[in-house]
Amino acid sequence: MHRTRVRVRPSIRTAVAAALLVPLTAACSANPVPATTNAAGTAAKNNDRPVTVQVTPTGRQAVTGEPVKVTATGGRLTSVTVTDAKGRALAGKAAADGRTWTSARNAVPGTAYTVSAETRTQGGTAATSRTSFTTAPAAKVNKVDWRPGTGTTVGVAQPVSLVFDRPVKNRSEVEKQLKITTSNPTEGSWGWMRDWSGNDRVDWRPKAYWKPGTKVTVNAELNGTDSGAGGWFVRDYTSTFTIGAQQIVKVDLDSHHLTLQRDGRTVRRIPVSGGTPGGDRRSWRGTAVLMAKEGTINMNSETVGLGNAYDKMVDHSMRLTWSGMYAHAAPWNARYFGNANQSSGCIGMSSADAAWFYDQVRPGDPFEITGKDTKGVVALNNGFGLWNLPWADWQRLSALR
């Protein structure tokens, strides 16, 4: 493209001139263009050269996912404003020498920006220049499924969990945009995994169970971030939630009882029946986190690979894993409660106990399950099995370690 240098000098005959704005049009390249002086006469008398301002990116199909950079030659920047078509500003910071300004975040896909730069020459002459550019739209968009929901109160074992609908190759870049703020000092870390659904997922958990009453804010400033082969993020996400009372459910499959503890005190001990020993109908052990209270649902054994063993409506259903382990009412198993494990893998109890228990617990409460004859430990991605990983091992799953 042909490069043209335009110089605009104020008339020496004019004592005071109004400020002029010289646009750097979007059709141009990133050619430096002199800022227009708004202190007429001074620059000419002192042979004070005008400041040239260069903005990148540039054009009508500008590169997406890069910060906006403004550079001044022959003077310094005194103020820079970058706004989109809706008037939203892109924050940034000038270098100490005032020669460059860089936005704190990337320009986002499919967005028109206007850049206004105020400058001052070496001789002290002030001027303003404006330019505009439009970023190319995203060919692919990556979306996020978010837990827990905003405004909720959850148990002390609840992680922050993001599941992406497209692959995330640039994990470190994505993780840099994820911020956790808590109302009290809470050490924690992100960890990447493949979700049970097969999609990429990243969770944040504290080193130990949350302190009750903690208020948590999650900011995922992802807009304009390239996730890699999966495409671009085109929005930010935010959520706030609160940690409720410390409730821990201890399930002893060998004694066939569960105990609800609240703030370190036993609230109630309930006779149960766990998974049948010696095969695929055994329960999982380790720490599972209550994912959801699903109420009355249809349970079909064929959906969890157990043939046609059962197909029935089940009351007071509380999901513990994606693989199908629940705590729920199981009146058909009444003779085994407190005596033997004879379920198809779930933790069953009487209808009365299940109704009471269902009203007490909340998503995020940990179920600490012990027993000699189980299928193994709840996997990291089978619901929220991340508490079964030692802290040092969990930290290694961060893309920034």
Describe this structure in words.
With 401 residues, this protein is mainly β. The protein folds into 3 domains: 113 residues, Immunoglobulin-like (Sandwich), CATH 2.60.40; 99 residues, Immunoglobulin-like, CATH 2.60.40.3710; 142 residues, Beta Barrel (L,D-transpeptidase catalytic domain-like), CATH 2.40.440. Helix content is 6%, strand content 39%. The strands form 6 sheets. Strands 1, 3, 6, 9 and 10 form a 5-stranded mixed β-sheet that branches. Strands 2-4-5-8-7 form a 5-stranded antiparallel β-sheet, with no helix packed on it. A hairpin with a 6-residue loop joins strand 24 and strand 25. The radius of gyration is 30 Å and the shape is elongated.
CATH class of the largest domain: Mainly Beta
Compute the CA-based radius of gyration. Answer: 30 Å
CATH architecture of the largest domain: Beta Barrel
Which term fits the overall shape? elongated
* SSE-based structural type: mainly beta
Helical content band: under 10%
Mean of pLDDT? 89
How far is it from the N-terminal to the C-terminal residue, by CA?
A: 45 Å
Largest sheet: 5 strands, mixed
Low-confidence segments? 1-31, 36-45
- Total number of domains: 3
Alpha plus pi helix count = 4
CATH homology superfamily of the largest domain: L,D-transpeptidase catalytic domain-like
The number of strands is 27
User: What fraction of the residues are assigned to beta strands by DSSP?
Assistant: 35-45%
CATH topology of the largest domain: L,D-transpeptidase catalytic domain-like
